[in-house]
Amino acid sequence: MKRIFFPWLSGIILSFSGISHAQPSFFTRQLQHLPPQKQADILWLARCIFSETSSPYEQELVAWVVRNRVETRYRGSTYREVILDPYQFSAFNHSSPMRNPLLQLQFSSPDPAWQQALRIAYKVYFAPASLRPFPKTTRHFYSPISRPNPPAWARGKHPLYLAGIDPSRFLFFDKVDEPVSYPLARQSAPSALYHVLHRHR
To answer: What phi and psi, each to the nearest 5 degrees, are found at residue 140?
Structure first.
C-alpha cells in the first residue's frame, strides 16, 4: 500500500521545537488548574481527536466515541488506556511515525489547530450526558477515505445517520460488539495517518 504523507498534521509536527517555552494562554492556565487525572484525560482525548481530523465537528464526534468507550469500560477504563489500546487508533500504534510527535503535545503547544482540539476535548469531557449526540453504545467509527474496504467489524452493519457528517469521510456505528483480540504479530501496514484524508477541504 502506497504511503502518502499526511500534510496538515505533518506541518504542525515539524514546528514542535521550542514549544515548551511558549507563554501559556488563559485557557491553558485554566487547564493547568484542573486535578491531575482530569488534565491527563483531556490531554489524551485532544491528542486522539487531533490525530483523526482537523474538522471541529468531526473531532467532537470522535471525542464522544472515546468518551463512550471510557464510560462503558470498552477496551480500557481511562482515556489513556482506551486510546493506546493496540490497533484501535492507528496514529498511536508503535509502528506509527506520528506516535512520538503526538505524545509530545502538551497544553502549552501553541499551534492553533492543536489548541482547537484541546478546547473540543475539554468541551466533550465536561459536557452533560444529555448532550451526547448518539447512544452510549456508539463506540466505533472509520473513515472510508483511509479505509476504502470496510473493517471486518463494520461488514453487514448499518452506520448511524448524523446530520452534518459526510459519509464519505466518516461513518459511526452503534452496538458493535467487537471481540477484544489482538494480532499475533505487529502489523506492517502503514498507519491510516499516512493515507490521503483531505482534511483541509
So the answer is: -135, 145
Cα–Cα distance measured from residue 201 to residue 181, given in angstroms and rounded to the nearest whole number: 35
Domain ranges of the chain: 35-177
Find the helix or strand (DSSP H, E) in which 173 lies.
Answer: strand 171-174
Spatial contact of 110 and 59, defined as CB atoms under 8 Å apart? no
Q: What is the mean pLDDT of residues 40-57?
A: 97
DSSP 115-158: HHHHHHHHHHHHS-GGG-SS-TTEEEEE-TTT-SSPPGGGTT--
Cα separation, 191 vs 198, in Å, equals 15
Contacts for 147-155: CB closer than 8 Å, 24+ residues apart = 147/192, 153/178
pTM of structure:
0.78
Task: Report in angstroms the alpha-carbon separations of 130 from 35, 66, 89, 135, 172.
Answer: 24, 16, 26, 10, 19
Residue 187 has pLDDT above 80, yes or no: no
Q: Which residue has the cell 452493519?
A: 157
Q: Supply the DSSP symbol for 171.
A: E
pLDDT at 23: 56
Q: Residue 29: what pLDDT?
A: 83
Please, what is the average pLDDT of the chain? 81
